[in-house]
Amino acid sequence: MKSRQSSLKSLMGIAVLFLAVLSVSAPYAKAANSTPSSDSAISKQVHHKLVQLPWYGVFDNLEYQVNGNEVILSGQLVSEHATTKNDFENAVKRIEGVTSVVNNIKVLPPASFDDQIRRAEYRAIFSKGNLGGYSAGPIPDLHIIVDGGHVTLEGAVMNQMDKTLAGIAANSVSGVFSVTNNLRIG
């Protein structure tokens, strides 16, 4: 019995490590595939700056697009992480070759109602099946954005089943006005 538990713990550890590696590589793969090859050096550096942000979590969603020497930042941040907006912009401005940064990141207004929904969504989603692993790693793969009672799921999951399961779980939370499932598979 103890060796079986030990084996299960080892497998769980390997699975968490695998998901952590995926969580670091998935956002970069998305950004690299959406930019021309001449932009790849800047894109790699922007991604590196993104993964170094200390206050970037599951309730935030940051994206970027590289167009030549211009970097366009977008996404949403909870108000507690508002400084991350300027931190990310300033870090990207210091990248060699970047001549301009457009900061379209939205800081979500503070609302206790939204905070309650965030906590309920987190519990509902990450307690289902294999979805718990998507909250692990330096940058979570699955992001829960709550704005005025409206929930948007952003990020990437491994398969259609996980996308569907996350959507069902998100829709099960009471008090939510709508759920938009923008999760990508891959």
Provide an overview of this structure.
This protein has 186 residues and is of the alpha/beta class. It is 44% helix and 23% strand. The chain has five helices and seven strands, in the order ααββαβαββαββ. Strand 1 and strand 2 (70-77) form a beta hairpin. Helix 1 (2-33) packs across helix 2 and helix 4 packs across helix 5 (160-171).
Key features of this structure:
single chain, 186 residues, alpha/beta, four-stranded mixed sheet, three-stranded mixed sheet, 5 helices, 44% helix, disordered N terminus
Question: What is the topological layout?
Answer:
Blueprint (H helix, E strand, L loop, with lengths): L1 H32 L6 H12 L9 E7 L2 E8 L5 H11 L6 E8 L4 H15 L15 E6 L2 E8 L2 H12 L6 E4 L2 E2 L1
Parallel strand pairs: 2-3, 5-6, 5-7
Antiparallel strand pairs: 1-2, 4-5
Largest sheet: 4 strands, mixed
What oligomeric state is this? Answer: single chain
**Helix percentage range:** 40-55%
Radius of gyration: 18 Å
Structural class: alpha/beta
Stretches where pLDDT is under 50 for at least 5 consecutive residues are 1-38
**Cα-to-Cα separation, first versus last residue:** 36 Å
| DSSP strand tally | 7
Number of helices: 5
Strand content: 15-25%
Order of helices and strands: HHEEHEHEEHEE
Task: Tell me, rounded to a whole number, the average pLDDT.
Answer: 83
Overall 3D form: globular
Write a brief caption for the model.
44% of the residues lie in helices and 23% in strands.
